[in-house]
Amino acid sequence: MFLDHKKLASSGDSYEEMRSKAKGLLRPLTTKPLQPLSSHRHLICLICLLFLSALFLTHSEAACNPQDQESLLWFSGNVSSSVSPLNWNLSIDCCSWEGITCDDTSESHVTAISLPLRGLSGNLSSSVQNLHRLSHLDLSHNLLSGPLPPGFLSALDHLMVLNLSYNSFNGELPLEHGSNKFFFPIQTVDLSSNLLQGQILNTSIFLLGAFSLISFNVSNNSFSGPIPSFMCMMSSPQLSILDFSYNDFAGQISRGLGRCLNLSVLRAGFNNISGEIPVENYNLSELEQLFLPANHLTGKIDNNITRLKKLTLLELYSNHLEGQIPKDIGHLSSLQSLQLHVNNITGTVPLSLTNCSKLVKLNLRINRLIGNLTELEFSQLKSLRILDLGNNSFTGDVPDKVFSCKSLTAIRFAGNKLTGQISPQVKELESLTFLAFSDNRLTNITGALKILNKDFVSSGGFPKLQIFAIGGCRMRGEVPAWLMKLKSLELMDMSQNRLVGSIPGWLGTLPNLFYIDLSDNLLTGELPKEFFHLRALMSQKVYEATEKNYLPLPLFIRPNNGTANQQYNHLYYFPPAIYIRRNNLTGSIPVEIGQLKALQALELLGNNFSGRIPDELSNLTNLERMDLSNNNLSGRIPSSLRLLHFMSYFNVANNTPTRPHATEDDELKKTLVVGLATGYLVGFSSILLVCAWRVYHVKRACISGINGVDMKQNYT
């Protein structure tokens, strides 16, 4: 027998009509009379014919369930794709449609819809609720919006996996109350990164009946009220992952969470949670991640936390925790990330900490820690990559043992009371990208840099170093010549030292350097023309093409830079800038400065520059801030500066300009005032637009001020 598929394919036929046609198209094979054969061979041929017939009948009977097909068509009618249409064609069995899976029963019910990353926009049709055998629904990473249909969750009583993450669904969760169902086989719920809001109530029949729930993720939304813990009673004994982070949950952490005895991940950071961490949480022997940063937690870190032997991540930063770091913290031998920064923790760093030999990231910045770091056996931390002990009150010498951690990529000791010198061993950290010793009491940093200078003559220096910050270290001498080896360098801060001599022209040969601060030193001489050959600042395209990675540690800008003590976690958002304030530089401002078209901030105040203000400054069309005050500049303010539409700050006070004619002077004042106001408004509007775009995907990722700072980074 054979099936004429061309005659069968008709988009206007109903399911029953298609089946009737299929039966009508089954025609008996025309065969000749059988020749005498052995009964054995005849039996084999007969079995083969029956087998082929059975295969065909199974295929023809296994067409997509018509009710499910209709529900899918309603679903597709509510969405569109920016990538390519779903192309769910009626001429094709819906079980063969993109992203659709059916069971192998005779009714061929739809059991799975998997359409992640398809650029789908529109609403989620309530017709999905009619797919009663649906066990997997994955519409993640799309552009779907609107509320979830009423009764959506409880209607899908076969659903095991629900993933609607990274969309724009809004409204409250349709968690029904009073349903006659008492069991739901759901195992995974991922609603993260949407615009959902409201409370998650403990009367939800769906969650109360989720006895098989393993993972529940509602992070990065706008949920409020207390963090739900009722799932940790008897309803979800297998619960392993709870993620409530980046929401508006408030109140205290429920003691009931301590009953989720199989919990391995508890994340509730970036909320408004207050109170102390319940001691019941320390009974969670399977816990691997405890993520509670950026809340209002108080009290001490209980020493019972060391009972969590499987803990790999402990992040409690940006709270109001006090007291000391538990002295037996070293019992957490599996710990890989310990971040307790921005708290009120006191005392010394426990010696046992270095027993956490698997540590990759250690951040204790901005606390009230004291003591001598040389007592710590940093050499045991072979896996350590990021170390931040800045902004505390550590004393004594810089710990040489830290330089034996060969995997280090970022070090910050800035803002302490360290003395001594930086060991030449630092040159062995070939993976180093971030080095900050600013604002310490180093007594021989100049000598250390001279030693490094000798070693770097025959080597490639730090081949990956991007950040070099040693401001406020009382360093004497000239700008170290070995810095010319740092071809990956993007940001240099040597401000507030005692540097002498002239600014070397070879700084202009560093291909990636886009931020330099040499302010508050004793530099003399003229600005070399070669300095203004900085390739990363030559054009906006070149600047944007320069690789700017996510920083391993945040960068801070001092208030006297005019940026309100801002903090940046990504080099991309860092302003291209040249700060050479308050030195003893002389001569004219080179016209070559007009080549740096990507520059956003230029401050040369407090020097002895003379001559005119170059017209070429008007080429700096991205400039937002310019301060040339307190110099010996003369002549007129170039009228071409009115072309700088983004300028929001301009200062040439305390110079000796020649006053132009009154009418020209008045016109220029008007132009500059209007230009500054326009730049301010345009800049502020741009900030709002950037924030709107980021909030679309990352909750509260951009709570900005006038200077465009990502305030969320203040937590990190």
SSE arrangement:
Blueprint: H1 5-8, H2 15-24, H3 39-61, H4 66-77, E1 79-81, E2 100-102, E3 110-114, E4 120-123, E5 136-138, E6 143-147, H5 152-155, E7 161-163, E8 168-172, E9 188-190, E10 195-198, H6 205-208, E11 215-217, E12 222-225, E13 241-243, E14 248-252, E15 265-267, E16 272-275, E17 289-291, E18 296-297, E19 313-315, E20 322-324, E21 337-339, E22 344-347, E23 361-363, E24 368-372, E25 386-388, E26 393-395, E27 410-412, E28 434-436, H7 445-456, E29 467-469, E30 476-477, E31 491-493, E32 498-499, E33 515-517, E34 524-526, H8 540-545, E35 550-556, E36 567-570, E37 577-579, E38 584-586, E39 601-603, E40 610-611, E41 625-627, E42 632-635, E43 649-651, E44 656-657, H9 662-697
Parallel strand pairs: 3-5, 4-6, 5-7, 6-8, 7-9, 8-10, 9-11, 10-12, 11-13, 12-14, 13-15, 14-16, 15-17, 16-18, 17-19, 19-21, 20-22, 21-23, 22-24, 23-25, 24-26, 25-27, 27-28, 28-29, 29-31, 30-32, 31-33, 33-37, 34-38, 37-39, 39-41, 40-42, 41-43, 42-44
Antiparallel strand pairs: 1-4, 2-3, 35-36
Summarize the structure.
This is Leucine-rich repeat-containing N-terminal plant-type domain-containing protein. InterPro entries: Leu-rich_rpt (IPR001611), Leu-rich_rpt_typical-subtyp (IPR003591), LRR_dom_sf (IPR032675), LRR_N_plant-typ (IPR013210), Plant_RL_S/T_kinase (IPR051716). The chain contains 9 helices and 44 strands.
